[in-house]
TrEMBL record:
GO terms for biological process: polysaccharide biosynthetic process; UDP-glucuronate biosynthetic process. PANTHER family: UDP-GLUCOSE 6-DEHYDROGENASE TUAD. Substrate binds at residues 153-156, 205, 250-254, 258, 321. This is UDP-glucose 6-dehydrogenase. Residues 314-416 form the UDP-glucose/GDP-mannose dehydrogenase C-terminal domain. Pathway: Nucleotide-sugar biosynthesis; UDP-alpha-D-glucuronate biosynthesis; UDP-alpha-D-glucuronate from UDP-alpha-D-glucose: step 1/1. The active site is at residue 261. SMART domains: UDPG_MGDP_dh_C. NCBIfam families: NDP-sugDHase (TIGR03026), TeichurnBiosyTuaD (NF047673). It holds the Pfam family UDPG_MGDP_dh_N.
Length: 444
């Protein structure tokens, strides 16, 4: 059991801190955002994450978890300090390390004995060394300390499960003592541990995300060829995924990847490569294909409706993926302004992401958490998130409510034959177009 301070109560910090407390440690989660800390103290959780509330209540009640904005005190009490602050994408695409540097300086200022400083933020190769140098400089080497890289691989929506039952832990450390403490901390998660250097651990995080993003863009490129060739990308995914060397996961073609990691980390990796004088062409193509998938959706809507001026379009799903209210780099953020720009009236549905979406999109569209009210009276439905509510849509009712039975599906949620039998015109991704009983040209 260790005393742990987690600095940064974003997705990674909060979930990791809570799970380390569940594993039996004493954890203080800190943040400079007093409002966030006040909320957490009152049991208000800033993110939507299944299972997190219960774990917080349980461990706060056991006195194993608490929240504070007094970062110096948390640093002084801790044996292990986890840095989990954001490394957002800067305007040039690089990871912005402002917060990491700030935290390193604060740690250096308040160091009062040997501590292990763990970097969980996604940071470019070399950041661990930089953090070490900053702490040494500010603390004037009064106390010994170790810096460790321990990247996080949790997925939003299943973050608690991904942490409590993690597939692997990656630990990059230079000292045997720090490595041993980190290995012990991960024991309750019964996971495979990859022990390595700080630089390799930092690289593993980017390589993992970039590889997954590459799988998605690869399938999206294959989907675009399938559309031209009359093939079905879902069958292609099935057919190649059964080869264990390829694997069945992350082969779903669609509207492209979003979220807090893939867009940011692919751009950052490109910069890292450039900083070492390497032209990472493959990752450039991955990013380009991803943007292209969003454009494809607009083109598909136009292929059915012609001019979008004055047309009413419903967007089903705003969050970048189901089971989260996260709107970061969500496809909806590119697609809705574009539809709006082309003159369409856009109505949107999402079960939980509306408040977040409003912050980014404002009032260029209307919002509702009522699926059928959103669909009612629209000329086309565009599906952007695979929410279970949308997957289980009553399609006959949908058809009755719409002006025309036109569905553009960015997530391949429905069976082609079923849509054909119901009389929809249905355009999905990488699958043959279903031509329903109506086309826009024969109703105007
Ligand atoms: C991802 C990584 O999975 C996680 O390990 C890392 O720590 C953070 O980034 P997350 O962003 O929560 O997690 O979402 P994930 O479930 O991986 O999906 C990312 C994006 O890829 C979503 O926009 C999703 O819709 C898209 N995706 C995923 C596809 O388009 N096709 C797929 O087959 C899988």
């Amino acid at each position: 059991m260790k005393n742990i301070a987690v600095i940064g109560t974003g997705y990674v910090g909060l979930v990791s801190g809570v799970c380390f407390s569940e594993a039996g440690n004493h954890v203080i989660c800190c943040d400079i955002d007093q409002g966030k800390i006040n909320d957490l103290k009152r049991g208000i959780i800033p993110i939507f994450e299944p299972g997190l509330n219960q774990l917080i209540d349980k461990n706060v009640a056991r006195n194993r978890l608490c929240f504070t904005s007094d970062i110096p005190k948390a640093i002084q009490r801790a044996e292990v300090i986890i840095i989990a602050v954001g490394t957002p994408m800067s305007r040039t695409g690089e990871a912005d390390l402002t917060h990491v540097k700030q935290v390193a300086k604060t740690i250096g200022k308040h160091l009062n004995g040997y501590k292990i400083i763990v970097n969980k933020s996604t940071v470019p190769v070399g950041t661990g060394k930089m953090v070490k140098n900053l702490i040494s400089e500010i603390s004037r080497d009064q106390y010994a300390f170790d810096v460790v890289s321990n990247p996080e691989f949790l997925r939003e929506g299943v973050a608690v499960k991904d942490t409590m039952q993690m597939e692997r832990a990656v630990i990059g450390a230079t000292s045997a003592k720090a490595m041993e403490v980190m290995v012990q901390l991960h024991k309750p998660f019964t996971t495979k541990v990859v022990k390595t250097t700080i630089e390799s651990a930092e690289m593993i995080k980017y390589a993992a995300n970039a590889f997954l993003a590459t799988k998605i863009s690869f399938m999206n490129d294959i989907a675009n060829i399938c559309e031209r060739a009359g093939a079905d990308v879902t069958k292609v995914s099935e057919g190649i995924g059964l080869d264990s060397r390829i694997g069945q996961k992350f082969l779903q073609a669609g509207v492209g990847f979003g979220g807090s990691c893939f867009p940011k980390d692919t751009a950052a990796l490109l910069h890292i490569a450039e900083s070492f004088g390497y032209d990472f062409k493959l990752i450039k193509a991955v990013m380009e294909t991803n943007i292209g998938q969003r454009v494809q959706i607009i083109k598909k809507v136009e292929s059915i409706l012609g001019s979008l001026e004055g047309k009413s379009i419903s967007i089903l799903g705003l969050a970048f993926k189901p089971n989260t209210n996260d709107m970061r780099y969500a496809p909806a953020l590119d697609i809705i302004p574009q539809l709006n720009h082309l003159g369409a009236n856009v109505k949107t549905f999402d079960p939980i992401a509306i408040p977040e979406a409003k912050k980014q999109l404002g009032y260029i569209c209307s919002y509702s958490d009522d699926l059928y009210e959103t669909i009612r009276g629209t000329d086309a439905c565009v599906i952007l998130t695979g929410w279970k509510e949308i997957k289980s849509l009553d399609l006959e009712k949908t058809k009755r409510l719409m002006n025309h039975p036109f569905v553009i599906d960015g997530r391949n949620l429905f069976d082609l034959t079923m849509m054909q039998n119901l009389g929809f015109t249905y355009v999905s991704v990488g699958r043959p177009v279903v031509h329903g009983e109506t086309t826009f040209s024969n109703i105007i």
